[in-house]
Amino acid sequence: MIEYHALLLALLVGSQALFSALAILNVRHGARESRANAEWLDERIGIESVDELIDYNRATAGLGQLQSWTLLALLLVALYAGALGDAVAALRGAGLGPITQGLAFFLGILLVQRIAQAPFDLYETFVIDEQFEFNEQTPRLWLRDAAVGTVVALVLGGALLGAVLWVIAAAPTWWWVGAWLLVVGFGLVMQILYPRVIAPLFNEFEPVADGELHDAVVDVFDRAGFETSDIYTMDASRRSSRLNAYFTGFGSTKRVVLFDTLVEQLSVPEIQSVLAHELAHWKKAHIWKGLGASAIRTGVAFAALGYLVDATWLYAMFDLPAEATYAGLFVAALFVYPLFGLTAPLVNRFWLGFEREADAFAVDVMGDGRPMADALAELARENLANPFPHPWYAAFHHTHPPIPERIRAVQSEDDPDDAAASA
User: What residues make up the catalytic site (predicted)?
Assistant: First the structure.
C-alpha cells in the first residue's frame, strides 16, 4: 500500500514542485531579458519602467505559488487526517441515496475550495492590482461577484456531477464513456449558455451603436468573409483597467465582445486587427480543432478514471467503503489531474500554431501588419504581460507566442526590413 501513497505524493507534490521551479525560472529569465532589452521595451512597447513590469510579474507569480502550495497542503492534511473517510461516513449515516451522497460530497468540496481561494483572490485584487493600478472594483462588487460565481458554479457543477453520478450507477462497467460524452456535450452547451446567460450575470453588454466603430467592425467581418454577428461592448472598466476582446458562441449565438477599456485605448485600425485575429480562429476552424483535441485528452483521462475506480487498493488507501464510488472517483482524480499539467506542452503546441496563423490572417485582412503589431504592443503595455517568458515555462503555460516574436512575425508579413529592425 505504501507504494500507492508514494505515487500519489510524487504526482501531487512533484508536479507542484516542478511548476514552482519553472515559475521561479520564468520570473528570473523575464527580469534579466527585460533589463537587457529595456530600450526596445521603451521604444516599441512603451514600457518606461522595466522595474514595474518585473515587480508585477514577481508579485503575481509569488502569490500564485503561495496559493497552489497552500491549497495542496490543505488537501493533503484533509486526506491523511481522515477527513475524507469521515465525510463519507457522515453522508452514509444521513440515509441519503448513493447519487445524493456523491452530489453532496463533490459540491461540498467545490464550496470549500472556493472559500479557501477567496483570501488569495482578495489579496490579488485589493493589494497587487491596486498597487499596479489595475483594480477598479469596490469590496461590495467583489463580494457580489464571489457570491454569484459560487452559486453559478454550484448549479452548473451540480447538474453535470449529478448526471455523471447517474451514469456511474446506470452503467457501472462503461460509465466513463457516458461521462466523457456528457462532459464534451456540456462544453458545447456552455458555448451557447455563457454569452447569453452567464456572462450577463457579471457584466453589462451594450450593442455597439451605429457609427465609426460599428462600421469598422462590419468592415472587418466583410473582409474576413463572415456575416456580421452581434457586436457588444462590455463594462470591464468596472473591475479592471486590463484590455481584451473575444468572439464567442456559434451559429445564431455568435457575438463579438469588446472590453470598453480596449475601445478607449486602441485606435480603430488596431481594434480591427484584434477582431480579425479572433475571427481567424473560426475561419481556420481552430475552435473546433481545439475542442476536438480537448475531447481526446478528456477521453483518455476518463478511461484512466474508469480503470482506477474499480481498483480495490484505491479505496483501501484512505479506508473508504467500496460502495462509495464517488469517493473513489475523487481519489482517482487526484492521480489523473496532475497528468493534465504535465502533458500541457502537447496541447499548447497546437495553439501556438493556431495563434501564429491567426496573426497572419489578421495581417492579410488588414493588408498591413502595423495595426496588429501596435495592438500587441498596447496590450502588453497596459496588461504588464511578461514579454520574455522562459521557453520551459512557456511550454507548460502559454498558448500564445511571446509578444516580441508575434510583433516581428506580423511586421515581416508585409515589411521584412521593418521586422528585422524591431528585433
Answer: 278, 359 (proton donor)
Q: Which of 161, 142, 143 is nearest to 153 (CA)?
A: 161
How do residues 122-163 score in pLDDT, each as one tens digit? 999 999 999 998 999 999 999 999 999 999 999 999 999 999
> Is 397 annotated for ligand binding?
no
**Nearest by Cα to 278 from 204, 346, 220:** 220
Can you tell me the distance from the alpha carbon of 337 to that of 301, in angstroms, rounded to the nearest whole number? 8
Residues with a known catalytic role: 278, 359
What is the Cβ-side half-sphere exposure of residue 181, based on CA atoms within 13 angstroms?
A: 6
- Distance of alpha carbon 403 from alpha carbon 376, whole angstroms: 7
Q: Which residue has the cell 467583489?
A: 142
pTM, two decimal places: 0.88
pLDDT, one tens digit per residue, over 334-347 is 999 998 888 889 88
124 is in an annotated binding site: no
| Residue 277 annotated as lining a ligand binding site | yes
